[in-house]
Design a protein that fits this description.
The protein is 39% helix and 13% strand. The protein has 342 residues and is α/β, with parallel strands linked by helices. The strands form 2 sheets. It has an 8-stranded mixed β-sheet, with helices on both faces. It has a two-stranded parallel ribbon with strand order 9-10. Helix 2 packs across helix 9 and helix 7 crosses helix 10. The longest helix is centred in the middle third of the chain and has 23 residues. The radius of gyration is 19 Å and the shape is globular.
Length: 342
Amino acid sequence: MDTRRLICTPFTSSTTADEVLRDIDLTGVRAIVTGASSGLGIETARALTAAGAEVTLAVRNATAGDAVAETIARSTGGIRPRVVRLDLADRATVTRFVDAWSGPLHLLINNAGVVTGGLERTREGWELQFATNHLGHFALATGLHHALARGAVARDGARIVSVSSTAHMRSGIDFDDLHFERRSYDPQIAYAQSKTANSLFAVEATRRWAADGIVANAVNPGGIATGLQRNFTPEQKASLDAAEAAGVFTYKTVEQGAATSIVAAVAPEFAHSGGHYLDDAQEAYTVPDDADLAQHPHGVKEWALDPATAQRLWTVSTDLLRVCPLDATASRTRATDRTPCE
């Protein structure tokens, strides 16, 4: 068992993003925030911009992104983030985004996420939550590795923030049925699997890229009411209400929720240390895979930090993106009998 001391910061669950960034000048820092047209993404992008960073809003809806950029410009005295379309479930847009990026990159905030109420698939036949929340971000990060390495040289390190969730405690990675071809579909388990994948990505990205000056950390922003819940089924809403009633979480403001992402992005404690899972602005303690969520709402399960599992997921993800053609003809739809590319 890992007996090292957990990394702590001076911040708490009530700290806001602006408070983390107080007295920090990010002039010259180039940052990408995915999913920056709503919720946590907006606040994360706004706070970084206000601190002087050159921020790119990577958004599926460019019109919504432009509206956010204008709002941020008004609140920051005229500093307007750049807006670029990115649909993480559409690999062609990920490829275009990567190909169009020029110059170094210092911060990649993989914030975007999707929750579905039923089984939906991408054109490749992949389960939509895993494809968007993990595979899309995986393709983006690996595609931008060279830019991050250049950013690390320029500023003594580059960082990736991978937004996970307490939901990771519901499921590890089912390598035998990643895309729910054989098991009964449960959207909560599918979401949980994708959030575990977000944490495992940070583990393996750090192992592979730390020598390049790049570290990645996963964060749990906590319970925040955002657009992510708009597709919840009655059962999902009931489960969320029950978790709140059991004390699994207490709702935070968006400003407080974004703070943990900002800590991972700028706090000196994580400048050269990655592969961690942060909760309430601190490194979370690890619990066994059979631990009860209600008893450990601020912990991280072993399956979300396991190095061997992280390496396996990286290999599987690389193979999926390499083997499945970009022009796959399967349509994104509700439950379908099409199988993922192998």
